[in-house]
User: Which sequence fits this backbone?
C-alpha cells in the first residue's frame, strides 16, 4: 500500500538501486485502496519523471490479484493505524482482516519463492497472520521489520562513542516491534580508533546502557510521532532498504542484523509459533538465527517480557482468524 510517506520514500530508493543494486532492472507494483488511485497515479508519474534506467515499469492497482501476481518481493507497508478511542483489540481485529486477505492473495498469486516483509503495525503479529494465511509459502519467507529499531540502537551507541554508525555492529533487537522490545548490546562491538572493543568498554557508562539507552530505543517511534506529529517515514524506508538488501545479498561476515522471523526451533527458549525479532545471519537469501549467544539474567527477563506480549497478541489475533 502506497498511501503513506514511508512508501513514498521507499519507492525512490528501490527504483534507484539501493536495494537490488544499480544494474538490476525492477518493476514496481503499487497496491492501494480504490479511493487512493488518483493519488497513486501522481506517484507513478513522478517515478516515470525520475527517468531511472533500471526502472522498467510501474503498475498501480487496487486489485490484489494484479498486485501479488508473480511477485519476487512483497513489502507490506500499509495497515490499520490506531485511532483515538480504539482499543488494542479493535486494531488487531482490523489488521487480522487485512493481513489474512494479503496472505491469501500471496498464496494464490505470488511465486512460492516470494520474500515477504511486513512493516505495518503491529508488524510481528500482522506478519504471523499473513504467513498463516499463505500455507504453501515457506514460513521462512516471511519477516517483519525491526531493522529500524536496530538502526536506532546502533546510532545511539555511535553518537555516544563519537564514531560513525558503521563502526558499531551486532546490536540486537529481541522480540516485538513495540515498547517491550529489548535492545541488547551485550554482543555489540565498537570500532574505536581502529580496534574493536565491546560496547560496555567503549561506552563506559553501564547505567546508561542498562537504562536510558534501552528506553530511548524502545520509545523512539513515539518520540518521533510526538515531535513530527507523524510517524517515522524516512528512517523506516531506509530500514526497509537495509532489511531487503541484506536478504538479497546477505550479511557481512561476522555481522548479524535484527529481523522478526519465525521463532520455531530457536535455541533461546522463545515460544514457538511467533514472529519474534532475533539476531540473524543471511546467506543465499536464507536467514539463520544466531543461536549460540550467551544470555544473562538481565537479558533473559527482558526477552521473556516481550515474548509474553507477542503470545498475548497472537492468541487474540488468531481468535479473529476464523471470522
Ligand atoms: C516506529 O517505530 O517509528 C513506528 O512503528 C511507530 C508507529 O507506531 O508508527
Assistant:
Amino acid at each position: 500500500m502506497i498511501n503513506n510517506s514511508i512508501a513514498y520514500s521507499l519507492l525512490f530508493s528501490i527504483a534507484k538501486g539501493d536495494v537490488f543494486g544499480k544494474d538490476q532492472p525492477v518493476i514496481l507494483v503499487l497496491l492501494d485502496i480504490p479511493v487512493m488511485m488518483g493519488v497513486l497515479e501522481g506517484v507513478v508519474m513522478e517515478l516515470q519523471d525520475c527517468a531511472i534506467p533500471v526502472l522498467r515499469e510501474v503498475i498501480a492497482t487496487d486489485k490484489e490479484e494484479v498486485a501479488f501476481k508473480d511477485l519476487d518481493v512483497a513489502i507490506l507497508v500499509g495497515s490499520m493505524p490506531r485511532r483515538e478511542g480504539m482499543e488494542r483489540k479493535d486494531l488487531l481485529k482490523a489488521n487480522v482482516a487485512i493481513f489474512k486477505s494479503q496472505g491469501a492473495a500471496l498464496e494464490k498469486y505470488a511465486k512460492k519463492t516470494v520474500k515477504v516483509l511486513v512493516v505495518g503495525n503491529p508488524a510481528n503479529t500482522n506478519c504471523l497472520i499473513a504467513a498463516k494465511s499463505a500455507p504453501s509459502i515457506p514460513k521462512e519467507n516471511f519477516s517483519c521489520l525491526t531493522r529500524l529499531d536496530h538502526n536506532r540502537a546502533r546510532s545511539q551507541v555511535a553518537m555516544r562513542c563519537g564514531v560513525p554508525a558503521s563502526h558499531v555492529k551486532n546490536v540486537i533487537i529481541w522480540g516485538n516491534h513495540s515498547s517491550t522490545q529489548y535492545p541488547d548490546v551485550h554482543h555489540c562491538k565498537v570500532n574505536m580508533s581502529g580496534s574493536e572493543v565491546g560496547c560496555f568498554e567503549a561506552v563506559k557508562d553501564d547505567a546508561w546502557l542498562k537504562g536510558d539507552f534501552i528506553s530511548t530505543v524502545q520509545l523512539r517511534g513515539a518520540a518521533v510521532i510526538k515531535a513530527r506529529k507523524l510517524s517515522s517515514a524516512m528512517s523506516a524506508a531506509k530500514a526497509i532498504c537495509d532489511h531487503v538488501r541484506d536478504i538479497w545479498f546477505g550479511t557481512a561476515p561476522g555481522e548479524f542484523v535484527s529481523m522478526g522471523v519465525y521463532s520455531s526451533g530457536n535455541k533461546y527458549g522463545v515460544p514457538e509459533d511467533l514472529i519474534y525479532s532475533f539476531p540473524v545471519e543471511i546467506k543465499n537469501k536464507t536467514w539463520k538465527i544466531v543461536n549460540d549467544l550467551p544470555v544473562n539474567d538481565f537479558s533473559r527477563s527482558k526477552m521473556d517480557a516481550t515474548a509474553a506480549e507477542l503470545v498475548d497478541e497472537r492468541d487474540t489475533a488468531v481468535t479473529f482468524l476464523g471470522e
Notes: The longest strand covers residues 275-283.
